Write a sequence for this structure.
């Protein structure tokens, strides 16, 4: 039976856009959900066939907010059930996936916005990259980097090209 797992609008322990309080809430909320989707993919890999990650609009007295959800189409598939169980709790912080927050806040006021999705991915790929010797400074970075490179090959190529360019400058 199909069902939905609501993962949230951003990692649980991170500040995020506040409905009814944050200027340009809708834009920032959608940016955070997209970045959260990327972060979930970095941590857990792409969803297997039979489920998918997407934003879901939720209506509230103060307006509409979006959260990241996992749509599960085939709960009997072992890979789908395993993925759903792993992503259900989401993330606690952006750093767990090698990401910087897409928006930095001072209370409910956005003070720095990184709104280019490609740059969010390239940044995470740079953070989690191996050293010159091919080894990862933090073992967990190997998983994050591999998942991002597999899911986003175009952005991985941009990240590699920039590192090569910087090394040759």
């Amino acid at each position: 039976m199909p069902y939905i797992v609501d993962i949230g609008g951003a990692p649980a322990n991170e500040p995020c856009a506040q409905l009814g309080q944050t200027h340009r809430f809708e834009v920032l909320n959608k940016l955070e959900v997209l970045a959260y989707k990327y972060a979930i993919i970095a941590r857990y890999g792409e969803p297997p066939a039979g489920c998918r990650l997407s934003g879901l609009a939720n209506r509230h007295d103060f307006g509409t907010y979006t959260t990241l959800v996992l749509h599960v189409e085939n709960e009997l598939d072992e890979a789908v059930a395993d993925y759903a169980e792993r992503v259900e709790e989401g993330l606690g912080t952006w750093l767990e996936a090698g990401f910087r927050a897409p928006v930095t806040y001072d209370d409910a006021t956005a003070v720095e916005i990184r709104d280019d999705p490609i740059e969010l991915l390239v940044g995470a790929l740079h953070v989690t990259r191996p050293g010159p010797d091919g080894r990862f400074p933090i073992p967990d970075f190997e998983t994050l980097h591999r998942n991002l490179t597999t899911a986003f090959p175009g952005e991985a190529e941009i990240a590699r090209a920039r590192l090569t360019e910087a090394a040759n400058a």
